[in-house]
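Quick one, T. Sequence first:
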Amino acid sequence: MSPKLLTILTLFVLATIFIIQNTDVVELRFLFWKIDMSRSLMFLFLMLVGTGTGWFLRGHMLRKRDTRNDVDESHN
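Structure tokens:
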């Protein structure tokens, strides 16, 4: 079994255990809103938001760096 597949399988098993153990309903309050949801669903939502933000910022920084390199090369 390859290390990459083993890592993915391990993360999947850990995520499944996490979801099973965190089924309690919690109240999420933000400004004027109140939402009742399972704790595991809330964590999943927050992880997806964090991952999306990270990908967006990484892509933005890479485009910014590539643009800067293109400008530097055109001046040489």
